[in-house]
Known about the structure:
Main location (chains A, B): cytoplasm
Radius of gyration of chain A: 20 Å
Largest sheet of chain A: 7 strands, mixed
Oligomer: homodimer
Helix content of chain A: 40-55%
CATH topology of the largest domain in chain A: Rossmann fold
Binding site for NAD(+) (chains A, B): 94-99
Domain CoA-binding (chains A, B): 84-184
Number of strands of chain A: 11
Shape of chain A: globular
DNA-binding region (chains A, B): 20-59
InterPro entries (chains A, B): CoA-bd, NAD(P)-bd_dom_sf, Rex_DNA-bd_C_dom, Tscrpt_rep_Rex, WH-like_DNA-bd_sf, WH_DNA-bd_sf
Amino acid sequence: MVLEKETITIPEPTLKRLPRYIDILRNLTGKGEEYVSSSFIASALDLDPIQVRKDLSITGIVGKPKLGFEVKELLQSLLNALNWNNKNEAFLVGAGSLGSALLGYKGFKEYGLEIVAAFDNDPKKIGKRIDGIKILPVGKLTEMAERMHIHLGIITAPAEAAQEIADMLIEGGVIGIWNFAPVHLKVPANIIVENAQLSQSLAVLTHKLSKASII
Amino acid sequence: MVLEKETITIPEPTLKRLPRYIDILRNLTGKGEEYVSSSFIASALDLDPIQVRKDLSITGIVGKPKLGFEVKELLQSLLNALNWNNKNEAFLVGAGSLGSALLGYKGFKEYGLEIVAAFDNDPKKIGKRIDGIKILPVGKLTEMAERMHIHLGIITAPAEAAQEIADMLIEGGVIGIWNFAPVHLKVPANIIVENAQLSQSLAVLTHKLSKASII
């Protein structure tokens, strides 16, 4: 059974800006900076300073007059808001070209994401390792998810296989699905699906491009 | 100089739903279906039928009573709205794991996107081909973009290189940038940047997951 831990829900547009603040704060930490103002962050990201102040207020952290926010404190608080301070263990299903790219992506560690196993139905792939992560047969998906208490699944399989994979993940106890397949998944109401479909991002770009012509 | 071709701008949330409608319509075309109702589409995608009707109204196509929309006509009209009926030629910069995955992704053809060349600064990669696409030295980026009249650039390079690459693309005449690097690009007002950063999508998912606990 899935229950709400907190009552405060951060709106999605704010959530999507938080990784950008985190990038800036990590950069400042690397440079040894101790304080940062919301107007500095706003200017670095071409955002409205009022927007940035409002977003950062979800952390409950108050900046010091003339100094601003303590960089480390603000960073930790934002990482907590996204649960990126904890390790989110995930299964990846579909070890094709996109799946392999995600398996090889080092940046996920900074987002608290760890892909612990990958699954595929291609006998030529099963048993091999991609960037140290073993490819297992998709038939073992449900059993393994249950046994390893995995709550997060990443689907990088073709569209026609995605629904069946989602069902298997959910049966194994997965409650969050990061879906890269170009298909709408039918899931129970308590399951969280986040679609990371490139086509949506590309649609915005090509439409805008078609409306701009070079003379 | 960049001028507006049309005055109607489709709002972003609508634009992001259009690829999902296109997926459904392509599927129906494959099955030989001639007509489709907006309520069928709504049900397939778990969307509000009123929302779907409103989205589809941007095409100007009117459904026939009791039959609904003509599948092929609606599909072509949606493809036109996204400019996916035309070929958008693009350069990709950064032939690492994500870049290579995008170079190998066959689905882009369906979105009217054709990556015609890739660029990298690694001498070990330059001159090789990934899925038939030649890797060229990044120093040739501006000159080649200009010569080939490329208007679309895809940045899959590391964060620290992304701004310089964007500048080179823009100098070569690129007006649309699909940015996969986790960094905010500073560009002139007439340049369109669409960020496809995985971290934003993941932020929404991990935050929601952290608020749901299994008992």
